[in-house]
């Protein structure tokens, strides 16, 4: 049974926040997984790094700005946030452009980290 | 092996549902157990009973219903994703049930492997 079992869940976010629904619906799974007291890690790679960009304004596209939720992850004991170094560099971004504290890692290091996970869900 | 499957893309538009179906069939034939199939994102559209493909094409929705009946599969559609896309009990195909995201997490915890089909 699942009661008492803690697995390492990793959520890999690869898409920009608003062109598709993946980022928003990934966040919904992340919050539920934390509610199940699982060991949760988040990775932001490729265009997924834009999900954490400071200063998102969505009024013009009539989408809800859900970026404040990333700041609230703390409150759900979700503190393992990893960002792909190469993805940031390729998009002209640095850690200072992001709205939460993250650990920046190379693609190769992230690969090793993924290896240690029990469940990897990619959005 | 105890396997759980998640499908994140809609039928016909994307191969995810086809691949997942063939994967489940092959796994069952090999004697593995499918703990649950969870439908998320546009994957919830795989559960619409209103789906009516041309007669010379495969019927992705009824194919899932049939497999569920034969193997007592637990086909779960995410309620929040379903409501966003107009899938509800009134147009839910046979063999599917609507429930929360906790069912996906639980499947991930209980299964030996969680296999994702999506983009």
Q: Which features does this protein show?
A:
heterodimer; A: 123 residues; alpha/beta; Hypothetical Protein Ychn, Chain: A; 5-stranded parallel beta sheet; 4 helices; 20% strand; B: 119 residues; 5 strands
Helix content of chain B: 25-40%
CATH architecture of chain A: 3-Layer(aba) Sandwich
Strand residue content of chain A: 15-25%
Q: What's the alpha carbon Rg of chain B, rounded to whole Å?
A: 13 Å
Give the CATH H-level superfamily of chain B: DsrEFH-like
Count of discrete alpha- or pi-helical segments spanning 4 or more residues of chain A: 4
CATH class type of chain A:
Alpha Beta
Strand content of chain B: 15-25%
Total individual domains of chain B: 1
Show the helix and strand layout:
The complex is a heterodimer of chains A (123) and B (119).
Chain A: E1 8-13, H1 22-35, E2 39-44, H2 68-72, E3 80-84, H3 85-90, E4 103-105, H4 107-115, E5 119-122
Parallel strand pairs in A: 1-2, 1-5, 2-3, 3-4
Chain B: E1 2-7, H1 16-29, E2 33-39, H2 60-71, E3 75-78, H3 79-84, E4 96-99, H4 102-110, E5 113-117
Parallel strand pairs in B: 1-2, 1-5, 2-3, 3-4
Helix pairs in contact in B: 1-2
